[in-house]
Description:
- The chain is α/β, with parallel strands linked by helices.
- The two termini are 41 Å apart.
- Helix 10 crosses helix 11 (374-396).
- Among the domains are: 79-201, Rossmann fold, CATH 3.40.50; 319-396, no CATH class.
- The chain has helices spanning 34-48, 65-71, 100-105, 129-141, 159-172, 189-218, 238-243, 251-264, 337-340, 351-357, 374-396, and strands at 2-7, 11-18, 21-29, 58-62, 79-86, 109-114, 146-151, 177-180, 226-229, 235-237, 269-274, 279-285, 288-289, 296-298, 301-303, 310-313, 319-321, 328-332.
- The strands form 5 sheets. Strands 3-2-1-4-9-10 form a 6-stranded mixed sheet, with helices on both faces. Strands 6-5-7-8 form a 4-stranded parallel sheet, sandwiched between helices.
Amino acid sequence: MHIGIDVGGTNTDAVLMDGAHTLAGVKHSTTPDVTDGIVQAIEDLRAHHPFEGSDIEAVMIGTTHFINALVQASRLAPTAALRLGLPATRALPPLVDWPGELLEAAQARSYLAHGGYEFDGRPISPLDPEELRGIAADMKEHGIRSVAISAVFSPVNHDLEVRAAEILGEVLGDDVAISLSHEIGRIGILERENATIINAALRELASEIVDGLTAAVRAHGIEAPIFLSQNDGTLMDDEYVRRYPVATFASGPTNSMRGAAATSGLQDCAVIDVGGTTADIGLLVNGFPRETANEVKVAGIRTNFRMPDVLSLGIGGGSIVDTSTAEVGPASVGYRLGTEALVFGGSTLTATDIAVAAGRAQVGDPAKVAHLDPEFVQRVLTRIAERVSEAVDRMRT
């Protein structure tokens, strides 16, 4: 048997599987501390279908821990960005386009040093070990705990990034995590550098989260390996997550797309994943999510690391409906849906209330939305359908 857990912005879902057969499934509201929600999910599964820890062969988790930390500008490690490229690239230094709140949250510092390559592999300038040792000393003085190293055209030749990491490690010690851009992003120095800085800022949190998830699972007597889903539709072990937390970004929609392929038998199709906060639309190609060829903005930062080609609409079960315009979202009650929506005794009109009033969902108390004007309900449904249709057309082209 194995356990799958998906932590969304609104709900945490968990299933106990025996091969491809579902033995038990549970859903409850996501807790402010996502790890607590995972503990509760395992307890709920055990209550529905008793099992021993030794019965479980693997635990797979999809989590929003890391993207949430970035979006909320919280729990980021003091991070330094080092670019190897002088005397070139001085005009646009590292972190040049980062939002101020994220710079402050990561206590971010940027440095320029000699090194890097031209597009054809010719060196821009030789690496200067003494220059790097001086930069490392300054990082240490300012309490930096994670470093992102990016060299111009390092995807062509990454040896300078590796050597720079060795030199910095001699000064900073093993307690400082170092991320290298050639392992994370593609050609395009600013976007690749940004992706690497994001990864570096999350490295410390990644260790905390992995340790927390491991402790939560082990507390139930489960000694099986733990895997987290990544954004290409595959799984990664705990050590990989500690090194590359950005690989979890957009893994939620990817999980849904892979699940759609498994349950439908279709290998090439469009998938719409309607959650509590957003509706995510993507395309399956040969059973795996199509990757985007464009830069991707994450929390307002331009990046170019591997991401599925997903279009997110602010339409979900918890999306708030404007009573004057019949527009839905992007604001959402999120995990408070069970208390805020009208059908659950709350005072906020949500997309879930509209679905119940239209007879398209059977949750909560339908009497609490019986007063809604049928014409208004239809206007909202029509508007949702139009926006989803427009999004699917955009993905096709």
